[in-house]
User: What shape does this take?
Amino acid sequence: MLDILLSQLASGLVLGGLYVLIAIGLSIIFGLLGIVNFAHGVFFTLGAYFALTLYQYFGWPSVILSPVAVGAIGMLAERLLIRKLYDKEPLVSLIVTFALALFVEATVRYIWGGIGQPFSSPPLLAGFLIWGPILITKYRFAVFVTTVAVLIALWLFLEHTPFGRILRAGSRDPEMVGLLGINLPKVLTWVFGLGCAISGIAGVLAAPLWTITPAMATNAIMPAFVVVAIGGLGSFAGAVIAGLLVGVVIALTIQFWPEASGAVMYVFMALMLLLRPRGLLGERWERFE
Amino acid sequence: MNVTKLALPRRSLLMGASALAASPLAMPHIARAADPIRIGVLLAKTGNIAAQTEYLANGTFLALEERGNKLMGQPAELVWLDEPTPQAATQNMQKLVEENKVCAILGGSLSSNALAEEAKAAELKIPFICDNAAATEITGKNCNRYTFRLNTPVLVQSRMLAPYALSYGKRWYHITASFAFGQDILRSSRELLKAAGGTEVGSDEVPLNTADFSSFILKIRAAKPDVVVGGLSAGDLSTFLKQWNELGMKGKIPFVEIAIGDTDIWAVGPEAANGTFTKMWYYKNPANPPEEQAFAEAYMKKHGKPAADKAWMGWITAKSLFDTIDTVKSTDTMKIIEGLEAWKFQAGSTSYAYRKFDHQMLVRNLAVTVKEKITDKWDYFDVKATLPENVADLQKVFGSEEEIGCKMG
Assistant: This one.
């Protein structure tokens, strides 16, 4: 029994890692822009579709460009649409980003068609890794390593670069940042692009595991919101801990009570909101109080 | 110059002209006679099932185009609304009847939707011809006078597949969707396994839209069954097969499932595809009659890719309705129902008709296995058998009136 539990734990960490990547972009965008981005999932979808197309035309190494392209589209969306929502009520941003999600999904359906697209992991990553009782495929291990690397790079960027410091300061007091002569609208465009690009990375990593369909965002966006709510809106560390916890809880629920595996994360979220309404590491943010 | 004097006073003339101009408002029945005949289409436009419904809709539209978009010699049109959830589907059904004035509705992509829709059809007194949903109850204990169904019920398909599953052994593992379709498969498969003296070594009900099956697959791997009997639908089945291969299970433990769609297997890809399945129709089946070959060619010509089984399902269901309307020369509900009960289509040696006591179309299914080597990105299957092998056994396989439990009243 121990061997299968450990393997389930490893499987849950990989799934949780993907949720973290999707959620972290959502959390960053909310933290700095104050936008609850309902369209976040479609950037995950675009990441998968761009990876598929780049692979078909240029081979595996080119898929690295997919998140860059997703980030660029995110920046374009910010300039054309999201920017107009900053001084509006949260409900307006919810409705507009929901409409954006429907528009992008319909566009994907128009360009790539409605049926699922086949896409497998690279041959280099075929096969298993077995460490004692733990069994994991090479590709899933690579997904986990990539997730950790992206998170470390993002943390270093936010904590130890001037741009990261501007982002963190802007999320707390945008007016003061503006008074210091920093072009905040430009910063916001880059932040939105960054959040979308991270979601795009999750899409690239998930593409060989999940079925690539225009509706694949529905499997991503709800767990992302749950992770952000559990971890605390705007909290980087909270999203990481919550994402991994959600992945592990789902995997262990499948082992013991599979029928409940779809609902368990919502129960987890409800409990967390009852016990700590701001989430695991959520702080008091003056802007949103 | 001679000017003929008006015989009518100017005021009377103006009143007469006004009355003439307003006459279409006063006589709506005259205006309606020129309206096209409208048929409702109720199929999901988004979600995981949308990959299948795109083909169902394509087949439906093609069936009308083959008739020059005319029924009874009058222009006809299809009005397609979404069915995102059972509740929204019944609301759209009401809209089709009350606002769009359709005379019949085609659709029902998921069993959970179709079960709600058939009850609504009875309430609205509108013919509903279900093309995709397979839950046994639709033409079983939930049947009604207004509902007809093409897809072979789950129980019947399970009976057809059982010998293939049993050929691998009697220790089965079930992995089924936790909604009407999957629960029906689980119930049917357990009955058949019990009758065969087999053992269920494990069973998992999977939430709809599950993205990661690795934890389920680890459980199956540990249970070491002789065969896995699946009951997953559309995109979930594709994801499962993809991850089944990724976790090295392809070729280790056989996988069987009823009612696979071509779109499901196309999404899996040649490296990962495997298994034995039942399905209603296959575009590469050498036994397809000329009428169906012509349909497949017309589909290919229009869409530039092969007709998936769902396209044929949309086409044959729509054809049954359009043939009926042309035959009875009426859009009256009861005339359409009686016409559908009497409808027959002979394609080569295959005869299609709805059974009168439950409105279920009796169709032989195919047993297919994924090819060892896939060289054509559309052609994944070898047809192993047409089931039941003897046409005379169709009634028996679909069950008698007593077994079905359909009471239309």
Chain B has two domains: 35-151+288-353, 154-285+365-391. The longest strand of chain B covers residues 74-81. Confidence is low (pLDDT under 50) at residues 1-32 of chain B. Chain B touches chain A at residues 46-48, 50-51, 54-55, 178, 204-212, 214-216, 218-219, 222, 235, 238-239, 242-243, 245-248, 263-264, 266-272 (CB under 8 Å).
